[in-house]
Structures are given as C-alpha cells and as structure tokens.
Write a structure and sequence with these properties.
Layout (H helix, E strand, L loop, with lengths): L3 H34 L7 H26 L5 H19 L5 H29 L5 H31 L1 H23 L18 E3 L9 H21 L2 H7 L7 H26 L2 H17 L7 H30 L5 H31 L3 H24 L10 E3 L4
Antiparallel strand pairs: 1-2
Helix pairs in contact: 1-2, 1-4, 1-5, 1-6, 2-4, 2-12, 3-4, 3-6, 4-5, 4-12, 5-6, 5-9, 5-11, 7-11, 7-12, 7-13, 8-9, 9-11, 10-11, 10-13, 12-13
Amino acid sequence: MGSSKWWRIGAVLMFGLFVAYLDRSNLSIALPELSHDMGFAGPTFADTSSWALTAFLFGYLAANLLGGFLTYRIDPKLTLILTVAVFSTCTLLSGFVGSVGLLIALRVVLGFAEGIYWPQQFRVAKAWFTDREMSKGTAIIQYYGQYGALAIGFFLLTPVYDALGWRPLFWVTGLAGIVLVIPLYVAFLKSAPTGAAPPAPAREPGTRMKMRFADFGGPRFLLLVFSYFSNGMLFWGITLWIPLVIQSLGFTGTGRGLLAALPYLLSLVLTVPMMGISDRTGKRVLIASSGLLVGGTLVGALPLVENPVGKLVMICIGMGYFTATFTSNLWAIAVTDLPPHLVGPATGIINGFGAGGGGIVAGFVVGKLQAVTGSFLPGFVVLGVMAIVGGLALLTYGRLRPREAPAAPDRTAVAPA
C-alpha cells in the first residue's frame, strides 16, 4: 500500500473538499454585485447578507447531526459521490436565481448535502490511516482541502467575479464538482484497504451497536464539542465577512482578493511544521488549544490598533496560527479517541454544532453589530473572547482524556424484530 494511499485517498479527498469549500465561500465574494441585482444593497444589506451567508450553515448543522447516524452503515464512497452531485448542482443553479428566497433555499440544500458529505471523509480516514498517521491524514484531507480553497479561492475567484460577474462565479464552481470531483471519486477512491474491516461494521443478526452518551466519552465529549463551537465562531465569523472587512479597512482594487487570502496562505505555510511537531510529540491537545488562545487574543484585540495595515497583520497572524494548529489536531484527537463505529456520528455532532452552530451565531453576531455600529470590530471582539474560552475548554478536555485507546465496540444481543 505504501505511499499510494496518500495520493489515492488523501489527495483525492483533499481535492473534493477543496471544491466543496469553493462552493461555500463564493457567495462572500459575490455579495456586492448580487445585493444590487436582488435589491438589498441599501439599509437591509447587513441583515439580508447575514441570512444569505448563514443559510448554508443551517443545512450544514442539521445534516452533520443526522448524516453521521443515518449513513454510518452505508458505503462512504457512495455517500460522498451522491452528496457531491447534490451540492454541485445547487451551486450551479445558484447562478440562475432571481430572488433572495430561492438563493437562500439553494444554500440550505447545499449546506445539507455538504453536511452529510463531511463526516464520511473521516470514516475513510479511520480505515486507511493509523493513529500515528492521523494528524498528517486529517491535515491532507481536511486541512489542505479547506484552507487551500480559501487561500487560492479568494485569490482566483475574485478576478473571475470582477471580469464576469457573480452568476458565472457560481457556474464555474458548480461545474468543478460535477466535471472533476465525481469522476475522480469513481476512479480512485476506496472506502477501506483490502482485507481491512470497514469503519462501520454491518450489524449481525440479533445484535445492535451501542451508541450511549458514555460511549462518546460522556461529559468530556461536550468539552470537545464546545471547543469546536468556539472554533466555528472564530473561523466562520471572519471567513464569511473577510472580503467586506478588507474593503472596510480601505483596501480596494484587484489586490483585495490576495489580501483576503493572506490569512489562509499563512496557515498553509505554518501547518507543515506544526503537523510534524504534533505527530512527533503527541501534544495535540496543547497545540490545538494554543491556536484558539493565540488566535482569539489577536482578533479580540483588533480595536486597540488604529492602523489598517496593523489590523490586517493581526488578522493574518491570528487566523494563520489558529487554523494551522487547531483544525487537523482537533480531528486527530477526535478520531483517535473514538471507537471506529462512532467516528461518523461523533464527527458529525462535533462539526454540526461546531462549524454549523458556531458559524450561524458568529455570522449574525458580526452582521448585527456591524449594522448597529458601522464596524466589524465589535463582532470580532466577541469572536476572540469565545475562542479563548474554547481554548480553555479543550485544555480541560485534555486533563480528562483517556490514556489508553478506546476499547472495541460493545455489542448487546436483542430480540429479532
């Protein structure tokens, strides 16, 4: 198997998530012209934009919570292919809409499909990568796919938007999933290595797999969920609004796409050494916690700096370090701490409440405070404080974390239906 799994599994899934994140972030770029065409460029801009940007996250939250449970017995490869088809079609159709209501509806379905898609990656990762490889595996799949899309996406899609408008922006990103991702998944993706047990074992006659709260880790699991909720607030609160934040700081012209991408470009640079340190030392909880604490402190302190360049530097360093240290480590912690049959459901819960719930709250907090104060900074202070609290919660989780690998899943006999 050797290094081939890093290409056949890691790189292919990375590209799929790359395209998925283009579909999530394209609306942030399209908002200025789209808002004019749909009639909310005036006083209602902040409120309507908040609904449009967070509509994806409502569907994402619901699907993450349900998808891990509803699909954990289904072949993850099939689930991945079907959900790519759905969310890519929604993105393509978004380029034809003429009303805010229809746009929001498509964004909800987009989020729902991507929410079901998301936990399946970790079912595949659990089958193919050992615990010692998990930081590298989750970094390649989730981290580089996600932040590569944001770094390259803002940089490349902004000129597309400037040259062609918002409708072709949706057409290009939607077709990428249909024309590129689905054929790649059909050709190369495998759910499990030959001879390996699938991540979600089929139910034996007369038995059922236990899914008790204690099996997820009990109260300490809630600390993991809350830390990811604070991550979702910090990440999405900035990512949803960063193209407009760049303009509010006085940066205009074609270079604003590159400036919006800078935090994620820095993250891509930092993640290489941080990934190596994490796997070599095993200090994943400490390193991930430092990401929330440092990122939250820098973002929360933005009002103390007057110079726009200084503010941009703080956003870049805060987001760059936070994303390079938190994301891949958090998922490595979750996947290695959980029994195989709970990986799909548990990562769905964490990502649903974290990215979905945290992102929804952050989107409205930043939008509402901007509408009231005329500045994005008050909302960013809230994001920073929540990130610091989340970092402390993850440190607490580390103190309660089990020292041994989780036992094999229990099976309890039940009477046949």
